[in-house]
Amino acid sequence: MKGVILGINPLCTLIDISHEVKPHDIREGALILANAYSYFPKGTIHLAVVDPGVESPRKPILFVTKNYFFLGPDNGLLSLAAEKDGVKKAIVLSNRSFFRPSVSTTFHGRDIFAPIAGHLSAGTKS
Q1: Is the dihedral of CA 68, 123, 120, 125 positive or negative?
Q2: Which CATH fold would you assign to the domain 2-121?
Q3: d(CA 25, CA 51)
Q4: Which sequence spans correspond to the domains of the chain?
Q5: What pLDDT was estimated at residue 121?
Q6: How many C-beta atoms surround the C-beta of residue 123 within 10 A?
Q7: Per residue in 58-94, is it b (16+ CB within 10 Å) or e — as a string?
Q8: Are the C-beta atoms of 45 and 121 separated by less than 8 Å?
Q9: Residue 62 · residue 93 · CB < 8 Å
């Protein structure tokens, strides 16, 4: 994921909050994100993936809040933090021109969310 983001925007600063979320534990990931996001500068793009539902009907989503962007699967992971900061807009991400050319069935973090984060960090609109 980091390579994909940096391939699009080499000037992007990447910081990991945690890799210690129990596998598939959306609630734990949501709590970690909700307790950490506000310590980052306004305008930060928070890309989070805890996604036991890859290949399910869940959609890739971007929440634009008062101060931040939250990007990831629409499975509840982002909701707590986004609501806490005040959702201004929720966007289902469907423009495949921002995805990697080949989207795997198991690694949407790399193939969908990371390229969108890279483009967003580079200032791309739409």
Answers
A1: positive
A2: Rossmann fold (3.40.50)
A3: 8
A4: 2-121
A5: 94
A6: 7
A7: bebbbbbbeebbbbbbbbebbbbbbeebeeeeeeebe
A8: yes
A9: yes
The whole-number pLDDT of residue 55 equals 66
What pLDDT digit, counting tens, does each position of 88-113 carry?
999 998 877 787 778 777 778 888 88
Count of other CB atoms within 10 angstroms of residue 44: 17
Amino acid at 87: V
Q: Token pair of 6, please?
A: 């940096």
Residue 100 CB contacts under 8 Å (≥ 6 apart), including other chains: 4, 110, 111, 112, 115
- Identify the residue whose tokens are 């809040």: 65
DSSP state of 76: S
Instruction: Give tens-digit pLDDT for 12-41.
Output: 999 999 989 998 999 999 999 999 999 999
